[in-house]
Design goal:
Radius of gyration: 24 Å
Number of domains: 2
Number of helices: 10
Strand content: 35-45%
Length: about 450
């Protein structure tokens, strides 16, 4: 039975209970390969399919879902969604969307990645570990060497006549090495995200992790005070990702964002622009429609320091009297619709990382932070995170630094940005950024 045929059966049986209905079907295939000491120690392939049903009864949205995507689940889906809608107390309006006027269709599925033999992917991850261990005798272990690949298919059909489907795939490789000199040990990390297997160069990836581990040997704290700080591209992307909910309309409505009533006001340095771009080829979350069936679009959230828009799903948009920005997504078919960014990106500047470092007489470059889930408050913007990196002196990296804590406020940090690099990179959280220089940040060390 096709997805369309099953949808029509559900709609036919549910028409006496619901004013409008939607079927969302999602298939996810995951490949996970891990290696340790030359042997495959993790090998998992999972392929799951699930169906989510939404129906509106007396203006209330009811949800249900199943892993059994066939006719035997129809009555259960309708009954549970109807029961769910009865107990909803909120007066917030929700809709089943009839569809956008135009969709910019795109192909986020790379057949070359999917058709690459699994043996090639196993050999890549084995070569990666072997190369890292061979580069320098001070590399004594590889703690983590992993390849992951995700394929996803989505299908939406509703009683408003909308039918959409797409597919995407993406692969990740992670490497963590341990360097030892005397009694001192340090770790180095590298990763690659792409939907083209030809991008997976094990030599470059190994060199990056090894260089980082070796560069941190001899690290010690720095004197406590305020310093100019450069966040490496992936670190700023991680920090921005931890605060991304401040740009969501539903967070603003719930009083969980200090950006309330800030539209058309300056909220960041005039050098800083932030976009939500769903059309990046091979992007982490490139999509031409969201999980409500709304066309996605390129949005300048912050344009030269000025806040232009929040990100909306339909529920939050209707509450504010606007239209959805195409940011209604769900974590999986089991979840209700919330808000999420697609490819959230800081617009890169024209300066190289070295150019930015040369503007600093005495400062710190941060290459890793810890505690993003516990050391920050997305409502107030305050953060306090353990970090490591390098001391900068007279425009050059002087020595490695560790056992420090960086503390500040994210909203103030955005205003204090005074340098943006051209070294754009996506982090593993789906947020992309170049390296960023801020005027000052409190650092606690010795």
């Amino acid at each position: 039975m096709t997805h369309k045929e099953l949808s029509h059966i559900i709609f036919k049986r549910g028409k006496d209970k619901f004013e409008d209905m939607e079927v969302y079907i999602e298939r996810s295939k995951n490949i996970e390969i891990g290696v340790y000491k030359g042997e495959i120690d993790k090998y998992n392939i999972s392929d799951t399919v699930g169906l989510s049903f939404r129906g509106i009864c007396d203006g209330k949205m009811g949800y249900s879902y199943t892993e059994k995507v066939d006719e035997s689940s129809v009555d259960m889906l309708i009954g549970e969604a109807y029961e769910n809608s009865i107990y909803i107390d909120t007066d917030d309006r929700e809709i089943i969307f009839e569809g956008s006027e135009e969709y910019r269709e795109m192909n986020s599925f790379n057949e070359g990645l999917a058709s690459t033999p699994i043996e090639d992917k196993i050999n890549f991850i084995k070569d990666l570990e072997q190369e890292a261990l061979a580069l320098d005798p001070r590399i004594v272990a590889v703690n983590y060497c992993m390849y992951n690949e995700i394929e996803k298919e989505r299908y939406i059909n509703n009683t408003k006549g909308l039918t959409l489907k797409d597919s995407s795939n993406l692969a990740y490789a992670y490497l963590m090495v341990v360097a030892k000199e005397g009694e001192e040990t340090k770790t180095g990390f590298s990763y690659l995200i792409s939907n083209s297997f030809t991008d997976f160069d094990y030599k470059n990836l190994a060199q990056e992790a090894v260089d980082e581990a070796l560069s941190l040997l001899g690290a010690r704290p720095i004197k406590s005070k305020e310093y100019p700080v450069v966040f490496r591209n992936d670190v700023f992307a991680d920090l921005l990702g931890a605060f991304r909910s401040i740009f969501y309309g539903e967070s603003v409505q719930k009083g969980l964002s200090l950006l309330k009533d800030k539209i058309k006001e300056r909220v960041a340095s005039k050098d800083f622009s932030l976009v939500d771009d769903p059309f990046i080829e091979g992007g982490f979350n490139s999509r031409f429609f969201d999980d409500e069936g709304t066309a996605t679009s390129y949005k300048k959230i912050i344009d030269k320091g000025v806040l232009n828009t929040y990100l909306y799903n339909w529920k939050a948009a209707l509450k504010d009297g606007v239209v959805s920005t195409g940011n209604g997504f769900r974590d999986s078919y089991k979840s209700s619709i919330t808000t999420a960014s697609t490819n959230l990106c800081v617009v890169k500047g024209n300066s190289s990382l070295n150019d930015i470092l040369e503007t600093i007489d005495k400062g710190v470059m941060i290459i890793a932070v810890e505690g993003l889930h516990s050391g920050l408050n997305p409502v107030s913007g305050d953060f306090s995170l353990s970090a490591r990196g390098y001391e900068i002196e007279k425009g050059r990296i002087k020595r490695p630094v560790n056992q420090i804590t960086i503390a500040g406020n994210f909203f103030e940090l955005l205003m204090d940005i005074e340098g943006i690099g051209d070294d754009f990179k996506f982090s593993s959280n789906g947020v992309g950024s170049p390296s960023i220089k801020v005027k000052k940040l409190a650092i606690s060390g010795e």
